[in-house]
Each structure stands twice: as C-alpha cells, then as structure tokens.
Design brief:
This protein is α+β, with helices and mostly antiparallel strands. The chain is 52% helix and 8% strand. A hairpin with a 4-residue loop joins strand 4 and strand 5.
C-alpha cells in the first residue's frame, strides 16, 4: 500500500486518486484475506468491489476523449522468490486498466499509416464541400497544382471539393456510371457554376435519396504532367465526421485511364457492330429483292471511296448508309483488299468449306494464317525451325553442261528459230506454230523438245520478235543463258518446274502482243516481260513462302520474311545474267538495262499472292482510265490525250498511261500469265491443277518431317486437296483478276471465255463430288 501511495499519477489532483488508494488498501487488507469465500454472493461482491470505473480527468467539455470510460481492476498477488538477499513483500496489489480508447487509438494509427502510404487520393469533406482531412499524396498534389496555377505566393485558392472538381476538363464528356447524374444547363459554361450545381446534387443523392454511393468520371490533370489529362473516377459515400459527429462526404479519386480506354474501344466496337448489323439488314433486303442468286462482294475501300467521290462530283448526295459503309471500310488495314475477305473465306459457306477458305486466306492475307490462328510449334518443329533448306539439299537441279552442249545442243543457226541440234521435225515445229494460240499445251512442247521446253521456246520467241538485233544480244550467249536458267528449275518439283515456266512464258507473250499491244508495250516492255516470265520462279524450292518463314529458312532470314522466294528468283537470276558467259546485256546501254531491271523486279515481286489485292486494286484505276479514254478520246475530265512531246519524253505513252502505270499493267500481265493454265483447254488445265496438288502434298510431307503439329490447309494427302477448292479460288482470285485485265484490254476476251468454261467444269465436279481420276472422264465426255 505504501508503494502504491508513492506513485506519481499524472493529472491526478485532490480527491481523484483517493478511490484508487482506498480500493488497493481494501484488496490488501487482512480482513479481506481472512474472509470466508463460502457464499457465492460474497465472491461476486468481492469481485465487484475489486474494480472501479472512471473517466479521464482534466479534459475540456469539447474533448472527443471525454466519453471514454476506464475500467480499473485491483487484484492481490502473492510473490514467491528463492533469490537470496532480496527482501520482497509477501503480497502486492496488481492494478490493470482497460478502455476502448486504447483500441481506438491503435486502429487510428494503423488507418493513418494506411492512408499515408496509399497512392489513391482519399478525402473527407463536410457536406458543404470543405476539406476536413485527406491523405498526404492527395494534399501534396493539389496544393502544388494550385500553387503552379495561381502562383506560389498567392493564397486566393481554397482546397475544397468545388476547387478540385473545377480542375476537371468539363469540355470533354463527363459521365455518371450509375445514371444518377444531374441535368446541367448547357448554357452554363463556367466551371465554378457547374461544380456548385454538382455539389448540390451530390448532397441530395447521398443524404436525401440515400444512394449507397455517387460516381462521376471525368478527365483530371495527370500527376506527373498536370498540363495533360487522364480519366479518373470520383466515388463518394455518406459518412460521419468522428470529431463533430456531423454528416460528411467520403471521396476516393482513382485512376481509370486504361479502364476508360477499354470502355471507349468497346463502345467503338459496339457502334461498328450496330453499323454492320444495319448493313447486313440492308443487304438481306437486297438479296430478297434480287432472288436467291448472289455474288461475292470484292469491292475494296479505295474503290468505294472513289465511287462515293465520283457520285458527289456528279451532284448526287450520298446516303447515310453509304457513308457508314465507307467509314467502316476505312478502318481496315489493307485498303486494297475486299472489305469482307476474312468473313467470306472463313465463313465455311459453300465453296469455302473446311480447309478451302483457310487455304485461300493464308495465301492472300499479308499477315498469314499462322498469325491469325496462332498455331503452336511442337518441340520437334521448334528445334528444327532453324534448319535451312539449302539449295543443295532441297533443289534437284540439272547438272548439264552449261555451255549448251548437253543433248547435242549447238548455237542457233543464222536463219533458224530454234537452236541447232534440237529436233526440228514436224512435231516440234507444229507445237511452236501454236504459240500465238490462247489454248497452248506446254506439256506437248516438253515432250517434243526432250525436256527443254523453256530454252527452246525462249530462243524461238526472241528470234521471232527480233530481240537479238534490237538489243544487240548475242544469240549464242542467250542460248547459254536460257539453258542455265532452265537448269535452275528443279525437275523434282511437280508444278514449279521448267514446263510451268514455259507455259507462263507463252502466256506472257500472247498477253503482251495481243493484249497490251504496241500502244502500251513497246520493244523494251516486251523484252522485260519475257525476261520476267523466264526467271520468275528461278531456283524455286517447291514450297511456299509461309513454309520458309515458319521454319526460318535462309531465304526468309535473308529477306526478313518479305517475299523470300520472289526476291531470291530475281537476285539469283540477275547474278547469272551479269556473269560470263551468260551476260546477255553486255552490249546494252546502262540506261536501257536499268529500265529493264526495274520493270522485271516489279513484275516478279508482284507475283507474291500476299500482295495480290494491293496490285489488283491499283490496276483497277488503270482499267477505269483506259475505259474513259476509249469511250472519250478527249477524256471524261477534260484531259486530252498525251501530246507527241509527252510520249517522246516518257511522261506518258500513246495509250495515255504514265510510266508507273505501264509498269503496273506489266505486273498484272505476269500475274495473269503465272496462272495462265486457267484458260487452257480443260484437259491441260486439269493436269496442271493435279500437279500443283502433288506439290502441295509434298510440302505437307516436309512439314510433318520437320515436326509440325498440323499441316498447312489442303496440303495433307490424307484429306481433300486443292482439286476440291477450285471454285472458291476462281471466284476470289481468278475471275476478278482476269475480268479487270480484259476490261482494260478487251482484245484478250477469248481467254475470259475459256476461263469461265473451266469454272463451270469445277462447279460440276464439286456438285457431283467427283474424284480427280473421274474428272478427266468428265472432260472427255464433254
């Protein structure tokens, strides 16, 4: 008791400490210790007398701690000690105190630390918008923002809810996710007035209508760069000020830049879907109005834009639906590709079932099917990915005498049209006499020339067109060059071989001479066109570009996955062309050679089907231009035909085409020639398709050897091949290409007739579900 009385209790004056001392003395009194605890009521009475309740002294009437009650307990404790030399009392009084204040203070400290560390701006405002408290990062940001805005020395600003809301960009769309925002008067432009009206609305929503929360989304200054804005969300709740016990507004400001970005993107997509839905409804009505028969929509964005502009220039007001369609089309990446290409090819509709549409999409899509479907590589495929398809291991090239003596070949005779030593019997001459026909059979030429259709045909055409004299090309050198190029076409390739190139060369010849004619194709253009056809598949590897890219072939790495085959054909062929004894342009001027090379490079690169729609889309402008010139020599736009000076200077030829347009016409010419078998006699055409299917199957086998999990579409010999996909190929690629070319050059119309005949044949084959072995029976029966 004496020890207890000696304690110095802070803020305890007068009689305040007396109850503590008295209770401690009572607990330690001998009478209490000797009392009998036999009765339960006595035990409860002692327990009740062993504690006191009181409030903190010395507090003012407005103190928030005034209402806290302390419970003080007193308990006697006996001390047992075995330590020697230490005098301890036999019993002491243990005093403990408990109060909700201690727990509240601990929790407050933790909450304060949490708010200090939180990057989320948190505020507590009075109902009038006055700032009661906020976490440090929020205060620091807005104080520095206002100091920067009004000046560090100026204190005209007040940090409250109104001023914070005025920082927002009210010119942008302010949204209310819960659809409970105010109806602000649009005539009110001042931010302060808008913020005042919004605060009144917040008070009404939270404290009158008793909404759980109120949210507003708007653009606010960025933390790192306040001159810029970002999307944030203010979420507000009804709260109570723990100091004054008055109503308050708890506010959280959170960054939602990414969320808002996604929301806006989803909104755009939703708008696009709504627009697309309206378009489909219109197209459905049109389809019903025109019966069941429909056609593929292959118009691209550029075509639609030009058509709309032409309509406006003609004084017609475009409809809202036309503008919406154009707006939708302009969002596509490839402006030259048909707007509905992906939808059409991957729809699994008739003509594009199964792997047919996938194959066409892979061939025509610049991204490639692998990017769209993201097909995985097996472990084996991944490990083999860097194995190069080296020229020696993958190309079965001829090892004939490059001097041109293999098989008895000798230099051309002075008056001959084919190299001396080749059988000039009637069968060879008969085939060569058909080079002007649309229905040429390169297989017959291969047969009668003993496996040299390309070199024989090249020498024949160059001799016939007087190319040797015009460009001072040595005939013997050209024969050596033709044989060297011919030896670069692997005999192991079922399709991309010398016979295919001979067929392309003959098609190019007829398209240049009968189609473009001297108005577009002069001697230099014809020479470039024939040379491009001659080398366009030089050293072909028997696989497509997608294969080279997928397995990281040397060519794909060399040309950065951009048309690796086409780039190699050009590079390797010109390497031969500039090496003795094959340098056929040794006597040609540098100016002419540069022009020829430029034309050849452009033509061969255009044969990559990945850029098919890009090339065709640009050519359609030429088609329309030539159509206007043929119908109106003065020109529909008041432009006269090129003058003699313009034609002579090269700014335009006699057809009215600029040099770059002539180059584009040559590119499309080679593209048509490259698939020229589509207008051959049906039996010849079917044979070519069968050979291409064999080469596709061979690629599928090589993909499997390299560990591919899945083979490319239509290349698995266990499934249907390309003989099951020709109707779709004709409709998407062949017919639009040849129709545009024939429209630009009407003299080529006969090949369009043959082409449609073969399309009808494939439609019948597809309808009757015939096998390739049965297809030839159909042709023979017809």
């Amino acid at each position: 008791v004496e020890d207890f009385r000696g304690l110095s209790l802070a803020h305890c004056e007068g009689d305040f400490a007396k109850p503590f001392f008295d209770e401690a003395a009572r607990v330690l009194s001998p009478s209490r210790n000797s009392s009998s605890p036999s009765a339960g009521s006595s035990a409860r009475s002692q327990a009740a007398r062993g504690q006191l309740q009181c409030r903190l002294p010395g507090l003012g009437p407005g103190s928030p701690q005034l209402h806290y009650v302390f419970t003080v307990r007193f308990r006697g404790v006996r001390l047992l000690s075995e330590a020697s030399g230490i005098s301890l009392p036999s019993e002491v009084c243990l005093v403990t105190a408990e109060s909700s204040l201690f727990n509240s203070m601990n929790q407050s400290l933790r909450a304060l630390e949490m708010l200090k560390s939180s990057p989320i701006f948190t505020f507590l405002f009075s109902t009038e918008g006055q700032l009661l408290t906020a976490n440090p990062c929020a205060v620091t940001f807005y104080e520095s923002f206002f100091e920067r805005k009004y000046g560090a020395a100026s204190r005209t600003w007040v940090l409250d809810l109104r001023s914070i809301l005025c920082c927002g960009d009210w010119d942008e769309t302010v949204s209310y996710p819960d659809n409970n925002g105010p109806a602000l008067d649009p005539s009110v432009q001042a931010k302060e007035k808008k913020a005042e009206k919004l605060l009144e609305h917040i008070q009404h929503v939270l404290f009158v209508e008793k909404f759980e929360s109120f949210r507003i989304q708007m653009k606010m200054p960025k933390r790192r760069d306040p001159s810029k804005h970002r999307w944030v969300e203010f979420e507000m709740w009804a709260a109570k000020d723990p100091i004054t016990q008055l109503q308050a507004i708890l506010v959280n400001q959170t960054n939602m830049q990414e969320t808002k970005k996604l929301e806006l993107e989803l909104k755009d997509k939703r708008d696009d879907l709504e627009t697309r839905n309206k378009q489909l409804q219109v197209e459905l009505k049109r389809a019903k109005g025109h019966g069941a028969k429909g056609s593929l929509d292959l118009d691209n964005t550029v075509d639609k834009t030009i058509a709309l502009l032409d309509s406006i220039m003609a004084g017609k007001q475009p409809g809202k639906e036309d503008i919406q369609r154009l707006k939708q089309a302009l969002r596509t990446q490839n402006l030259r590709a048909p707007n509905r290409l992906e939808e059409m090819l991957l729809s699994n509709k008739k003509g594009f079932e199964g792997e047919v549409g996938l194959s066409l999409f892979e061939m025509l899509n610049p991204k490639g099917l692998k990017d769209v479907l993201a097909q995985p590589l097996s472990a084996r495929e991944n490990s083999n990915a860097k194995k190069s398809l080296s020229r020696n291991s993958t190309m079965d090239l001829d090892t004939e005498d490059e001097g041109g003596n293999e098989g008895g070949l000798e230099p051309a005779s002075e008056d001959g049209v084919i190299p001396r030593g080749i059988d000039q019997s009637k069968p060879v001459l008969e085939v060569l006499e058909t080079v002007d026909d649309w229905l040429f059979d390169a297989f017959k030429l291969e047969e009668v020339t003993g496996g040299h259709p390309l070199s024989v045909l090249a020498c024949h055409l160059f001799k016939r067109l007087n190319m040797f004299e015009t460009f001072e090309i040595n005939e013997t050198q050209f024969l050596h060059f033709a044989l060297k190029i011919e030896s670069g076409y692997p005999v192991s390739n079922a399709y991309h071989n010398r016979t295919h190139v001979a067929n392309v060369l003959q098609s190019m010849y007829t398209l240049l001479t009968k189609g473009l004619g001297p108005e577009v194709a002069g001697d230099e253009e014809i020479l470039a066109g024939l040379l491009a056809a001659l080398i366009h598949d030089y050293e072909h590897k028997g696989v497509n570009n997608d294969f080279l890219v997928r397995f990281q072939d040397d060519l794909a790495l060399k040309y950065n996955d951009r048309s690796p085959l086409e780039n190699h054909h050009i590079s390797a062929a010109f390497d031969v062309m500039l090496t003795k004894p094959y340098d056929i342009f040794a006597n040609t001027s540098l100016e002419v050679f540069i022009k020829l090379r430029k034309l050849v490079v452009a033509m061969v690169l255009a044969t990559d089907m990945k850029i098919h729609f890009e090339v065709l889309g640009r050519f359609r402008l030429i088609e329309k231009k030539l159509g206007r010139l043929s119908s109106d020599p003065v020109g529909s736009e008041g432009c006269s035909s090129p003058s003699a000076e313009e034609a002579q200077s090269g700014s335009a030829d006699s057809s009215g085409l600029q040099p770059e347009e002539v180059s584009l016409a040559l590119q499309v010419c080679l593209k048509c020639a490259d698939i020229g078998h589509v207008y051959c006699d049906s039996s010849v055409h079917l044979r070519w398709v069968q050979k291409l299917e064999q080469e596709f199957f061979a690629q599928g086998d090589r993909e499997e050897e390299n560990g591919a999990i899945t083979k490319s579409p239509l290349m698995d010999r266990e499934k249907a091949g390309i003989t099951k996909s020709q109707v779709g190929f004709f409709k998407v690629v062949v017919v639009p290409l040849f129709a545009s070319f024939c429209a630009a050059f009407p003299s080529t119309a006969p090949m369009l007739e043959s082409l449609h005949r073969n399309l009808k044949l494939w439609a019948k084959i597809e309808e009757d579900q015939l096998e390739i072995s049965e297809v030839f029976d159909v042709v023979l029966s017809d």
